[in-house]
């Protein structure tokens, strides 16, 4: 083990056993202490709340079979499911093992610059790549994953490092982030700790924590998206000790944001932003910053060759999810799965570019916005609100998901004044409005436009001032 990992193990064991006074005595030097009240007191770096929209990418050995989901190995040999077992029987020789897929993870078409350009075109302000999923394969040349990483076997390159460099060199203001699974389904050290009721920490100290330090120190991600924590308590993972180091002494201590998956019982309770559960979208304003991590492919985070067109969310649906998420104070982390040979397939690319086209017109309603006093409209369905201070003026944005058939839309939430002005993002003229006949809300007349004149194709944003 490297010297830094040895020191890490020593410090971790000091804290766990509370047996070395000089180790414990150092806590006073740090701003954040290794306990949840202190960790949770750290303000979330402002860039994250302002970003609103990010791209998730699940990529690994599971991208080779690209069948069912990224949990392929587990569904085949962990807790077998019939479709996975039958798929292997029909298509692969007897005795074929999951590691036999690794030489096929070739990534020969992987062009990090192209990835960066597509991500930038999507309008996303951050990207989160899987550094390691539950299969344990690391997408970087980890010293702690011998012969089960992207350098020792195919694709013989540092996938993480290449993308980190491309994002920083070829995008305007996209933050680079990494997903990391704490546990590994079949790692013998983890299984040994698990068998003993997690009374030992061999896997944590020899694999998990050294890997975390490695990706933070080598790639300096602004997002650390933790997962795979649910089988063991945070004490097993030494989560608070690691987070105290991350927030106090790491090279990204001032910029990094983390989620809430740091051990059994921490989800939706501790950490930077709350991811709670996959595809978390409460539909109401939350007290704590949260993120809706979801997939364009409704059934999988990894690429699936067996996906049908109906399995993909449309751009219209994705814009609606973005509007609802941001209105309720969340960020949207939208996932795609690259292929084993290193491509972002056309349907994913199309969705990303179309989201970017929408944001080019309507980004003022999304980026750096804040929730308004109402999240969705009280009279008309499919209208979500955001707000933003523009100088001394508060602008309120109504994101209208469906163009009204009558060309007039009733908004129940705004209270108009004689100075109220309403425009549509992407359209230069002011819109006409009047008080609603009921006395509650306003009726806005949408502009008369043919399809070629519409500022965008999916949802339309009304900007209201002095309401």
What is the mean pLDDT?
94
**Helix/sheet category:** alpha/beta
Terminus-to-terminus distance: 63 Å
The tally of structural domains comes to 2
- Give the CATH architecture of the largest domain: Alpha-Beta Barrel
Radius of gyration: 24 Å
Topology as a string of helices (H) and strands (E): HHHHEHHHEHEHHEHHEEHEHEEEEEEEE
**Helical content (DSSP H or I, runs of 4+):** 25-40%
Tell me the number of strands. Answer: 15
The CATH fourth-level homologous superfamily of the largest domain: Glycosidases
The shape, in one word, is globular
Our estimate of the beta-strand percent is: 15-25%
**Low-pLDDT residue intervals, each spanning 5 or more residues:** 1-28
Strand order of the largest sheet: 5-4-3-2-1-7-6
CATH topology of the largest domain: TIM Barrel
Q: Given the structure, what is the number of helices?
A: 14
Level-1 CATH class name of the largest domain: Alpha Beta
Specify the biggest β-sheet. 7 strands, parallel
Structure commentary:
The chain is an alpha/beta fold and 467 residues long. It folds into two domains: 30-363, TIM Barrel; 383-465, Immunoglobulin-like, CATH 2.60.40.1180. The protein contains 14 helices and 15 strands. It has helices at residues 3-17, 21-25, 36-40, 46-51, 72-78, 82-91, 112-121, 159-170, 188-195, 202-219, 234-237, 239-248, 315-327, 346-362; strands at residues 53-57, 126-132, 175-181, 223-227, 257-258, 290-295, 330-336, 383-390, 393-400, 408-411, 421-424, 427-430, 433-435, 442-445, 460-465. The strands form three sheets. It has a seven-stranded parallel β-sheet. Strand 13 (433-435) and strand 14 (442-445) form a beta hairpin. Helix 1 packs across helix 10 (202-219), helix 5 (72-78) crosses helix 6 and helix 7 packs across helix 14 (346-362). The model is unreliable at 1-28 (pLDDT under 50). One of its GO terms (cellular component) is lysosome. It is an enzyme of class 3 (hydrolase).
